[in-house]
Specification:
Layout lengths: L2 E11 L8 E12 L4 E5 L6 H9 L6 E6 L2 E2 L10 E4 L11 H10 L9 H14 L15 H13 L5 E5 L7 H18 L2 E6 L2 H7 L2 E6 L2 E6 L1 H6 L4 H6 L6 E8 L2 E4 L2 E5 L6 E7 L4 E3 L5 E10 L3 E7 L8 E6 L10 E6 L4 E5 L5 E2 L2
Helix pairs in contact: 2-3, 2-4, 3-4, 4-5
Bound molecules: adenosine-5'-triphosphate.
The site of adenosine-5'-triphosphate has 13 residues, from β2 and α1.
Length: about 375
């Protein structure tokens, strides 16, 4: 089911009654989610991602704009009538019910021609329980399950009504690191197997990038960029997006362009033909540095952290906006720790320059 958001906007009255005014939680969001895809809605706390999800679910009414599921305009429909499955951060399972009863619950409330026989309901519940691999646990209560298992029950409960769209709001936040990894792969597998269009809200860029077909990066209610995760990582349109994606994060410097050359401090680090002379902000991905004793970019060497296949070189430079510069290079590079400085050549496709004022990308 294709999901189309058309100029979606949500304005709340300010929570601070004394100050008054309003909060534009989501501002003119237009985007089409293709049928059967998993979309990661991503951004820092307060950027409007949950509000967007709640508007798609019907839990919140938009101030402006429309929402379509396929050809259906669902903007005015109630949550119950939208045909969605919702999974929240806190699984919100019924503690006194078994796993089976929890999964059956949404089916028991179906009315009219959707009403199902007991046998059909049990068959459907078993089917989804198998899909999320909890069919062995059907007689347990939620308190007898691990966090990951509880989250899978919540997903089964959302899937049992065969939703047109599956909405997941930070579904992995309550899990420990290992379970998070496992469960996010699980969500990807379930989504692929069912082919249900899925929207996944998270503030964790790594999580979103690893499982999404497409990501939407938001800031202060405004969509900054949409695209395939790798494309957005490789071609950020502004400094915010460049900084938000990537672990370790992008290294940011004050720089300037003069005569078609990019300078960081006094070092002339790269040719940037066609770019007008100006002060700029420079972003360099950690994998954009090549240690090179004749390289033009000179930094103070602080430490080398071995990570197996790769090493992380920690250095600093007066023009760096981050306290340290992190570069990731192949472990075959032998770094001489007796030296005080390290010289780099930069990979041009890993270097981005941005307008100093509006932080938009300057292409070269
Ligand atoms: P988080 O990751 O912290 O949940 P988020 O990106 O999901 O953040 P939203 O919860 O969508 O952000 O909130 C977006 C903005 O709208 C925030 O500034 C928030 O304070 C404001 N907001 C959300 N709900 C309300 C409300 N009911 N009344 C007033 N302001 C609200």
């Amino acid at each position: 089911m294709e999901v189309k958001l058309q100029n979606l906007t949500k304005i709340f009255p300010s929570r601070n009654k004394k100050v008054g005014g309003e909060v534009v939680a989501v501002n003119d969001f237009t985007f089409t989610i293709p049928d059967g895809k998993l979309i990661g809605l991503l951004g820092p706390s307060g950027c409007g991602k949950s509000t967007t999800l709640y508007m798609i679910s019907g839990l919140q009414k938009p101030t402006g704009g429309r929402i379509f599921f396929g050809e259906d305009d669902v903007t005015e429909l109630t949550t119950e009538n939208r045909g969605i499955g919702l999974v929240f951060q806190n699984y919100a399972l019924y503690p006194h019910m078994t796993v089976r009863q929890n999964i059956l619950f949404p089916l028991q409330n179906l009315k009219g021609e959707d009403k199902m026989t007991k046998e059909d309901m049990l068959e459907r519940a078993t089917e989804v329980a198998k899909l999320v691999q909890i069919d062995e646990l059907m007689d347990r209560k939620p308190s007898e399950l691990s966090g990951g298992q509880q989250q899978r029950v919540a997903i089964a409960r959302a899937l049992v009504k065969m939703p047109r769209v599956l909405l997941l709001d930070e579904p992995l936040s309550n899990l420990d690191a290992r379970l998070r990894l496992q469960t996010r792969e699980e969500i990807r597998r379930i989504q692929r197997n069912t082919g249900i269009t899925t929207i996944f809200v998270t503030h964790d860029q790594e999580e979103a990038m690893s499982i999404s077909d497409m990501i939407v990066v938001m800031k202060l209610g405004v969509v900054q960029q949409t695209g395939k995760p790798q494309e957005v990582y490789d071609d950020p349109h502004n400094l915010f997006v460049a900084k938000f994606l990537g672990t370790p994060p992008i290294n940011v410097f004050d720089g300037k362009v003069a005569g078609g050359k990019l300078y960081i401090g006094e070092d002339c680090v790269l040719d940037v033909p066609g770019v007008a002379d100006q002060d700029v902000t420079v972003g360099i991905r950690p994998e954009g540095f090549t240690p090179d004793e004749n390289g033009p970019f000179v930094c103070n060497l602080r430490a080398v952290e071995v990570m197996g296949r790769d090493v992380s070189i920690v250095s600093d430079n007066a023009a760096s906006q981050n306290p340290v510069i992190r570069s990731i290079v192949d472990a075959d590079n032998k770094i001489d720790m007796t030296k005080e400085t390290i010289r780099y050549t930069l990979k041009p496709h890993k270097v981005f320059i941005f307008n100093k004022e509006n932080e938009e990308r300057i292409y070269f």
